Amino acid sequence: MNATRSPRRHPTRTDRLLAVGGGLLSGYVALAVADLLAGLIRHESGPVTAVGDAVVDRTPAAVEQWAIRTFGESDKAVLLSGIVLVLGLLAAALGLLALRHRAAGAAGVLGFGVVGALAAVTRPDSDSALDALPSLLGAAAGALLLYVLIGRLLASEAGEPPHEAARADRRGFLLVAAGAGVVATVAAALGRAVGPPSGEAATASRRALRLPRPASAAPAVPPGAQLDVPGISPFITPNRDFYRVDTALVVPKVDADGWRLRVHGTGVTRELSLDLRELMAREVVERDITLACVSNEVGGPYVGNARWLGVRLADLLRRAGVRPPSEGGPADQLVARSVDGMTLGTPVEDVMDGRDALLAFGMNGEPLPFDHGFPVRMIVPGLYGYVSACKWIESLELATFDAYDAYWVPRGWAAQAPVKTQSRIDTPRSFARPAAGQVMIAGVAWAQHRGIARVEVRVDDGPWREARLGTEDSRDTWRQWVHPWQAAPGRHTLTVRATDGTGVTQPERRTDTMPDGAAGWHSVVVTVES
Asked: In angstroms, rounded to a whole number, what is the distance separating the alpha carbons of residues 442 and 238?
């Protein structure tokens, strides 16, 4: 007859604390192994990135706007940190569960691996079942470790001397934990160091790219466009300061040598497929164009002006046989697709009405930065970025607005969104405390493709005073403005409004950014000191 096995000793408070640590360590091992494998397969297949993208795709628009308002361009880092924090809490809970039911705790770790795998293979840019491997194998490693750790923690049987048994168990637990921690740290370091060949190739291809000289160069920025006022936004926004608002938790790094653009869809009589060199061999133009994000609140920072180098999008569409709706063409929407699966819908009529809509590969004299769409992105003056400025573009499909909704439309945003006339006070900033005397009130105003005709400033409830405008570069760029103010001591409210080139003045009433961009006058409150 087999001897009956004695029960394990009863867990103590210290055992429970160690179990929490074991759960956390198991989660760390799972993520480290997953990140190492994602580095070898595809960085976007890592569980944190995949789950983060799934969260972004399913987050209500109101919550997204709150995140942008609250965290600005750090919203992605906050999201990823939040995911890691939640995973840590769940890992700790699974450690406690494993102390009572070892197999159940390990199974919980495996369950999170399945969630990460599903998120990875259902990404729009996923084209291989291999994307599931990092999450699954990482979770398997974490589950095995948790099972072993808890087994070591309660290895002694009831009836053995309790203090000696507990010391032996904990010593075994700590030895296994220390070894696993070292291995996981090495795996995490390797995961950061290695990567699929395309990452290195993309960096090398950008470094090697030589931009062509434009056949139609942008005129020099006219004298007087940049006003000599401290604190005003520079007329040309440096690349490092240009705003970035997108959904990519990992910035795509596309090898320019392997990149191709496909033009196809309704009304295309000659489908096109071009590589970057074929695109750059076409007539190259250079233009100064201001971009604005629809998420930009009144007075917000998500607007910038740059010198873009590229080819006219309308010329490329006409080569494909596309006709705008005004000429009887059947497609009224141009759907741009990014390598990460993002889709943006642009009115075909706007692209082909003569404005400088570009497929851009240069920004302020250098190849596009990766953050801003290398190797190629779209630029359409007069439209908010979410309906026109597709980054990391790989496909242009002609369709109709009735037949297809681009990414943002089902999330509550308008399908068509021309830029609204806006003006912003850059200096003095809100809550500034300038000295009494002459204070320069200055900022920028924009109404792309309509231009800015007038900017007016009001102090408190006084009369509107016309500001001096900087020289206009083009109607597709913002204009700087300045107004000298004899500031008296006390608290004052400064307000600005602009009138566009069609004679329409921006309305006073503020509206939210949804569904098609914010409106209203920008104001700042300052206290003038005597």
From this structure: 20
Token pair, residue 332, equals 């009224």
Kindly list the averaged pLDDT for each block of 10 residues, start to end, along the chain of length 530: 49 86 91 87 81 76 72 74 86 91 92 90 80 92 91 67 68 87 85 65 94 96 97 97 89 94 97 97 98 96 98 98 97 96 96 97 98 97 97 98 95 95 97 96 98 98 97 98 97 98 96 95 96
The residue count of the chain comes to: 530
Q: Are strands 260-265 and 393-399 parallel, antiparallel or unpaired?
A: parallel
* Sheet with 479-487: strands ordered across: 422-427, 437-446, 479-487, 468-469
Cβ atoms 472, 500 nearer than 8 A: no
pTM (2 d.p.): 0.82
pLDDT at position 190 is: 80
**Residue 112 near residue 141 (C-beta atoms within 8 A):** no
Note whether 498 and 466 are within 8 A (CB). Answer: no
Residue 527 CA: distances (Å) to CA of 92, 230, 312, 430, 434:
51, 19, 49, 9, 7
Tokens standing for residue 465? 């005073």
Rounded (10°) angle between helices 133-153 and 102-121: 170
- Any residues with CB less than 8 A from the CB of 267 and at least 6 apart, and which? 321, 322, 323, 329, 330, 331, 398
Which residue from 392, 389, 47, 378 is spatially nearest to 253, judged by alpha carbons?
Answer: 392
Q: What gap in Å lies between CA 475 and CA 466, rounded to an integer?
A: 19
Looking at residue 221, what is its pLDDT?
96
Phi-psi region of 112 (alpha: psi -120 to 50; beta: other; left: phi over 0): alpha
Residue with tokens 């160069």: 217
Instruction: Return the closest-CA partner of residue 279 out of 315, 306, 252.
Output: 315
Three-state secondary-structure class, residue 23: helix
Buried b (16+ CB within 10 A) or exposed e, 299-331: bbebbbbbbbbbbbbbebbeebebbbbeeebeb
**What's the helix, strand, coil split of the chain in %, to 5?**
40, 25, 40
384-402: pLDDT as tens digits:
999 999 999 999 999 999 9
Question: From residue 485, how far is each of 211, 292, 358, 428, 442 by CA, in Å?
Answer: 45, 29, 41, 11, 10
DSSP one-letter code for 508: S
> How many angstroms separate the Cα of 193 from the Cα of each of 37, 40, 197, 207, 229?
12, 10, 12, 20, 45
